What we know:
The complex is a heterodimer. By secondary structure, chain A is an alpha/beta fold. Chain A has a domain at 97-212: Divalent-metal-dependent TIM barrel enzymes (TIM Barrel), CATH 3.20.20. In chain A, 41% of the residues lie in helices and 10% in strands. Chain A has eleven helices and nine strands. In chain A, the strands form two sheets. Chain A has a seven-stranded parallel beta sheet with strand order 1-9-8-7-6-5-4. In chain A, strands 2-3 form a two-stranded parallel ribbon. In chain A, helix 7 links the parallel strand 6 (178-181) and strand 7 (210-215). Chain A is globular and about 55 Å long. By secondary structure, chain B is α/β, with parallel strands linked by helices. Chain B has two domains: 1-43 and 208-264, no CATH class; 63-194, Divalent-metal-dependent TIM barrel enzymes (TIM Barrel, Alpha-Beta Barrel). Chain B has helices at residues 28-37, 51-56, 80-99, 117-137, 161-171, 182-188, 192-199, 225-234, 251-262, and strands at residues 15-19, 42-44, 104-107, 141-145, 176-181, 203-207, 240-243. A seven-stranded parallel beta sheet of chain B has the order 2-1-7-6-5-4-3. The radius of gyration of chain B is 18 Å and the shape is globular. The interface between A and B is medium-sized, with 23 and 22 residues.
Amino acid sequence: MVAAGSAVTASSFGAPAVISALPGKKYKLIEKNNFNLHYAPHFGMFENLAGKDLIDQIKFMADVGFTAMEDNGMMRRPVDVQEKIANEMSRLNMKMGVFVVDGGDNWKVSLTTGKQEFKETFINTCLKAVQVAGRCNATWMTVVPGYFDRTKDLSYQTSNVITALRAGADIFEPHNLVMVLEPLSDNPDLFLRYSAQSFMICKAVNSPSCKILFDIYHMQRNEGDLIKNMESSWNEIAYIQIGDNPGRKEPTTGEINYGNVFKYIYDKGFRGILGMEHGLSKSGAEGEQALIDAYKKVDAFI
Amino acid sequence: MSSKDDFLSLKGRINHSVCRWCYDQIPLDQLCTAAKKMGIKSIDLVEPKDFEVLHKHHMDCGMVYGLSNPYGIEKCFNRESHHKDLIDIYEELIPIVANAGFRQVICFSGNSGGQPDREGVDICAAGIRPIMKTAEKHSVNLVIELLNSKVDHPDYQCDHTDWAVSLCKKINHPNFKILYDIYHMQIMEGDIITTIKYNYHYISHYHTGGVPGRNEIDETQELYYPAIMKAIVDTGFNGFVAQEFIPKNNPLESLQKAILLCDI
Lengths: 302, 264
């Protein structure tokens, strides 16, 4: 269901970039959507409509009706930028989505080895992440335990990951922060791949600060049976991400019937964040409008 | 009683079929009449004893079922001890199918029963190879169905695309193919369109079904069937896509809705 809210024009963004992106043309009326779920776009998704300025992009997202935003690279941004982003989002009453806890070891053989050096880097990165989360009002942070260590039995690798994550959970728990483990499908070397595997690891870590990030795109690639697998691992899912398959573009561009998947998530009572961690099927301002239209369509599930 | 206008006009890029067993409360004769009006050209999983009814309606049978007890889904080619009986069955069945004007007959792996996957491929291949001569002679495909082993068919061996493709490669005969069941493979693997794109050479037939639940393939489940149908058409497929869901609502209305959804 899309409720018509206040219609705004480009001029009300106070963003010259919008005008320059569409020369000689005022941006057409944008309907402020009243989405049923907290879909979270990311920077760059609306550069053509909102301009390159980060604050303008946040304003644009809010104007369209998005009530959350995620920024994977938040940890790498200067402190003052993190604060500015957080302030603007607070002002607009937007929820902060995930950033990635990345000490440089996410895309290589690391925590599965059990080696102290990787564990130390992970712990230090978690400590930094606490600071970043505090500055930008984040609750959830993405954790990726790296690649398989092919020299070790899978059970040893799993136990090494659990040991490292327990140390991470000890850091996050006092701050009520949550690391969300993301099973991925990008390459066959990634250790964390399945919802059941992630569920088991969360149970073993046994902390409210260690939960699952269920990325629907990755899970459709790795295991399918989306609703059933969400249902089975539901108690450990704290964060959701979106992307159609194949192609990892906005809903309506692939094989996933997002309307019904969102209906399931909504009916479960989930009111957390659903990160729009995908690209756009079309380029330019038209592509950005198409993305907004796609979300209007799949959000009409009530 | 029907004028030409009563018939659904379809785009014709998908050849539609429907599985008999999902509508078993409707006599086959009536199902043929209703299906024809919807633009459906074939009824799947019909046995030779019912071919006469199909002929009466000029209906194709996209996938013939010809096994009888004790053979079927759970008990089939993955045991050497079954081979003699199965070879006899298919040697007799294939000419009947061909004479009826039909082109495909279904087969299964059987349940694993502790058998390693690789061994299952080898044993199935050994049992199937001798039949391929007859299949070739009569231009009939022997088609193995992929089924889920989590919900409907626990322990069924041919439950992953890779396994079925391995078997195709091992048999290496153009008349041995895969029935890719979208419902079953969404439960086991996901990644439907990519899997079809990579393996379509081995696939000669498709089945549908809503996930989860195996009911209507519409907006009440997790797959977006039009995108999958488009991917199938894009592979140059000219076989049948058969609806194989258990209708929750009015069966024929649901069937018609599914045909329209898949008519891309």
